[in-house]
Structures are given as C-alpha cells and as structure tokens.
Amino acid sequence: MRESFQVRENVPLAPCTTLGVGGPARYFIEAAEESAVVAAIEFAHARSLPLLVLGGGSNLLVADEGYSGAVLKMALRGVRVEDEGAGLVTVSAGEDWDRFVAWCTDRGWAGIECLSGIPGTVGAAPVQNVGAYGQEVSETIVRVRALDRDSLRTADLGATACRFAYRSSIFNTDRRDAFVILAATFQLHPGGAPRLRYRDLQLRFADAGGRVTLAEARAAVLEVRKSKAMVLEPGAADCRSAGSFFKNPVVEDALAVRVEESARRVGLLGPSDFLPRYPHEAGRSKIAAAWLIEKAGFPRGFARGVVGLSSRHALAVVNLGGATAAEIVAFAAEIRGAVLDRFGISLEPEPVLAGFKPGAAEGLLARD
Fold this sequence. Notes:
The protein has 368 residues and is of the alpha+beta class. It has helices at residues 34-46, 97-107, 125-128, 159-162, 199-204, 214-227, 253-265, 289-295, 325-343, 362-365; strands at 7-12, 24-31, 51-54, 60-62, 67-74, 79-83, 88-92, 109-110, 131-132, 135-136, 141-148, 154-158, 179-187, 189-190, 250-252, 277-281, 284-287, 303-304, 307-309, 317-319, 352-354. The chain has three domains: 7-74, Uridine Diphospho-n-acetylenolpyruvylglucosamine Reductase, domain 2; 79-227, Uridine Diphospho-n-acetylenolpyruvylglucosamine Reductase, domain 3 (2-Layer Sandwich); 288-365, Uridine Diphospho-n-acetylenolpyruvylglucosamine Reductase, domain 1 (Alpha-Beta Complex), CATH 3.90.78. The chain has a five-stranded antiparallel β-sheet. A four-stranded mixed β-sheet has the order 1-2-5-3, with helices on one face. A three-stranded antiparallel β-sheet has the order 15-17-16. Strand 11 (141-148) and strand 12 (154-158) form a beta hairpin. The chain is globular.
C-alpha cells in the first residue's frame, strides 16, 4: 500500500457536507498526493465499486443509507504562480475556493472577486462552472488538469474542451465521472478593476465614480451573500444548507413571456411589474428560480418540520436540525412539483445526489 494511501471503513459523511445529513461511506480515502488519487481509483476498480469524489461537501446530498462505494476526499494542496505579470496561476484541487479568491484580491488580481464566499474547493469549481453576481469561473480558467479514471493518465483540458455552459461542463454532463480534477490553471488580470455587473453591487458603488478596489468589491459581495444566508457561518440559523438548491431555469423566450402574462393575470405581478428574467443566449432567458419558488407558495422561512427554506433566500433548502436526506428530498420535490404545476417550468437541483437507490429521488430528478 502506498505511503500516502489509507483506506478507512464506515466513515460518517454527514460531517463532511454542509447540509449535515447522510449515512456513512463504505470506504473512505483521503488523498493528499496525486499518487493516492491513482491508488484510490485502482482500489475502487479492483472491487467494482463506484467512486465518489468529495471536495468541500457544499454541493452534495448523501442518502441516509450512506454511500456503498468508495469516497475519495481530495486534499491536494498548492498554489503555483506560472507567470506573475500575466496573472497565470495553477491551483491544486483541494485548496479552499474562497481562500484562493482572497489570495487573488489581496494580490490585486481581478477576475473572480464576485465569486467570493462560495463554499467548496478549487477542484469543484470547474465541474459546475460556479458563478455569482455577474461572473463565472469559466471566464478565467484556461486549463484543467485531470486524471482519466479508466486509463489513469493525466490530461490537460483547455477551456474549450471543458465545454463550459451555465452551471455545467463536461465534468457533470456527457463525461460525468470520467475524470478526477487534480488542478486548474487560471488567467487573472493583475491591476484589473472589479467586474460590477450585478445590480446590487452597482447600486452600492453608484457614488464611487468608478474607483472601486478589488478588496471593496469582495467585501460587498460577502455582505450581500451574508444578507441572503449564502455564506456558511457556523451557528447561524440558516447555515446547514447546500447554498442554492435549484438552478435558475433557462427557457425559451416565448415560454418566459407566457409565464409573465399568466402571472400578471392571476395577480402575481402588478401592471407595471416584470418577471425577473435575464437574457441568456439567442432566444432564451434565465428566470430567477427564487421568484418562481416564492410565487408557487413557498416563501422564505417556510418549513415542514425540520426542513425548510432559508429565512433570507428562497433558493436555499435548510436542515433546521435533525433532518434526514429523505426529508430534504421530499421537501425539495414538493417545491419542484409546485413550480411545475403553476408555471410549467421544471427546476433542476444543483446538489449532487449520492447513494440514493433507484427511484428514491424520482420526484426531484424526473424529466417532465
């Protein structure tokens, strides 16, 4: 057995996730070196086991029965500056995402300041193409170093090869579970100005005359996220969540218009109000999922027993204390069904569901 490779059995996974639910991992392997990642894959292959890659656990819902395969906890560390003047840096997958954002803003490197406060690891960021407040991580990633699970060879995938789109990449779509991300290389902008596309940020700095530092932008983003319970603070009432539980749906413009007209007819929108939607691509719009959820009858703070919505943001499903994974799935499926019934729009969950038996989460995952 390799020196950096150790297998533990029946390790509780709930403490490894921000939702704080779920049963144990049959096998648990923490990899601080790339050789341990290879060994973990070989271990799983030899036993015909599924392998779940675990980062910060902020986008994960584990079944109450646990995970019957092997869990690989990524603990690879390291930040290597490739080109100081060009803002080129390679970061290992196990590094904390927000600490890396802080490192960049402290250095005066622009490009990811609006992604402050997002929990998780650097390796998880490309998978979902994390984004917030007018920025997406795909805008700065130039290369992802990944290990092919079948061949056990490393590959450097450029941004084009990663096929980034809204909350997606090859790593969570057609090549899901094909790779383990080892590191990502970012192209930041030394001396660059913060990107203030988000309306709340624009209003906050309206009198700044364009003189906003990266540190000020980061602080403002963290303040906005805290106001919406989107920063994980131990002990806070809304801290046990996976952040945004549903993606903002992207729909045809014609459907968005029908939803807006219908909402106005039934009084969900006033005569001068408009559906919160934003241009996404030709002929398609992104609609605010939080608005759909609230107008479908689930306001902020709504709860069923020990599961509810954050008191500050309708997109966050919260474990209020002692919730089970099954209760969270049932609650989220109820919300999804209500939105579908009222607006004809299917919400897609953001968290990865792990360990659930076939059909156990059908109401949450079914294609409508």
